[in-house]
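We modelled each protein-ligand pair independently. The example shown here corresponds to the pyridoxal-5'-phosphate entry; the chain sequence is given first, followed by the ligand as SMILES.
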Amino acid sequence: MSINEQINSFLQEIPETVKLVAVSKTKPLEAIQKAYDGGYRIFGENKVQELVAKQPELPNDIEWHFVGHLQSNKVKYIAPFVSLMHAVDSLKLLKEINKQALKNKRTIHCLLQFHIATEQSKFGLNLEEAQNILRSDEYQQFDNIQISGVMGMATFTNDQEQVRQEFRQLKFFFGQLKKEFFTNDLNFKEISMGMTGDYKIAIEEGSTMIRIGTAIFGDRYR
Ligand SMILES: *Cc1c(COP(=O)(O)O)cnc(C)c1O
């Protein structure tokens, strides 16, 4: 299937309430342009340098999602145009995003990344750390960010039951934060979970956003 056929088959398969982020990392401009010409507008990248190189070469109305781990000193490069930061995992990073958003006279939407996998290498917060951020005086003063929900990556395993439990955990964290901090905030609504290998389980467990690379653009060779 072509890129456009893959995207369309995802759009037909997933519920309307679930947003598809086409993760184009490592893929050439032509692949993204093809998907754009087919009508798609929502793309995800995980490296600042790569996103900054691609963005000016492609149409302006693309909705760029940053799905990778972000270093504070690089926020400034993508703050002018990024539409959602999926992997925010510290107060320090939030502070910098707020600062750069203010500079650009924007509000930047962010998701708090939780550590739900058993693998040590994955980034992310636990519930207490997230609560501490949201309770902090500093956070109350961030007027140029909007926390729109949570994000997580399950363990890379064939054990479907484990993956399901991890997604359930993320949904639970979402519910806890909603209850404690965002009851009246309709913008706090996203649960970004699910990739090529596990998106079906993620949707069953309440995902509102799936991030799909390989199944749309093919294998990555780096
Ligand atoms: C690469 C990546 C994806 C997409 O992964 P696939 O398995 O290729 O669908 C999703 N989320 C994040 C954070 C990624 O880095």
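The longest strand covers residues 145-152.
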